[in-house]
Amino acid sequence: MKILQSWNALLFVIFALSTVCFFMYYTARNSEILKTQRRSFTKEQAEKTIAPYEPSLRDAMTASRTVHCDEVTEIKYQVHAGGLSGKMKIDTGASQMNYWNDIGEVFPVNQSLTYMGKYTTKYNHLVDDAAVIHGPRDSNRVQRIAVIIPFRDRHSHLRIFLGHILPVLRRQGNTFSIFVVEQAGADTFNKGRLMNSGFKFARTVGNKLDMPFDCFIFQDVDTLIENDNLLYRCTKRGLIDHLSTSINKFGYNPLCCGMTVGGVLAMTPGIYELLNGFPNSFWGWGGEDDAFNARIKKKGLKIARPNAELGRFTMIHHGADSLNPHNGGRLPAVRKSTDALEDDGLTNLDTSVEEVWMYATFVKVRVNVGTPPK
After folding, report:
1. Which of 19, 164, 188, 347 has the lowest CB atom count within 10 Å?
2. Read out DSSP for 179-217?
3. Per the structure, how many domains does the chain have?
4. Does residue 185 form part of some domain?
5. Strand-pair category, 239-242 with 302-304
6. Residues 132 and 36 in one domain
7. Residues 194-208: pLDDT tens digits?
């Protein structure tokens, strides 16, 4: 009898404790639900609440990029501040038409595929004041941006790119200039030498015009931004901005397939000089971006990236270029270039500017990059 009473008492205690725990859980859960309901906004309420802060949100969005190379973070608020469109439809035909309209020409149906329209001026030598300045010149609230495009023989891509990016950069409100750096001759393509040549040219021009560029953006000509809430600017604070986080070619998988800092990359001129620019020693496709990434790590700098949704880009489809063959020995070359960081880049650049073409919306700088070693 005593044993039975003891079991009954034990069961009663267990039941009582279970009831108390369930009651505490139920109370806490209801409390959290009520808090969530109080915090929840309708779309109209959220827009009304955020509206007073829209002028400063673009800077806040820039500052909220992650600085960890292998992770992406969400940006809390994405509003169409400053007349931005947000997600954009990629329409290559419309972009080309926009390019022609922008330079004031009727679509040149009978012109060659390499035709870029009538240039305003052509210099058969190096000049130090050739730039097309878009946006305000005298505002301290905007960045002055130089966009550097390494280029050869992809005129249709260039027309699409310019017709697509110019409206975006104008909506974002910064002062900017675009420099298309074209490799002369028929030797193997060298992207690093074009990047370095474009940087030095734009740096000189900005200083000559008493409007030095705060931010340099290096962009492949076949890469198109999909969301103009992703701001083309430098976050500063010693960071390097890798804007093209996810590309359609790779199924929009963030940093897919060994991507390091290719596509679209932004940094201040001081950081670019600290890294001694891109290596000059990579001829053909592949390797120079990996080597630049290795330089960033060696100098202890950090990379800022947008989240995968905001950092979406479309790559224009194109075939292989016979003058830009795959660089099969790039991995040993990356190690060698990293070891020789101080000696391979801006410090030993020996390219020369052959021609400068002024167009209505951009400048084309034609560069002799030399010849690859035998």
Report:
1. 19
2. EEEEEPSSSPP-HHHHHHHHHHHHHHHHHHTT---SEEE
3. 2
4. yes
5. parallel
6. no
7. 999 999 999 999 999
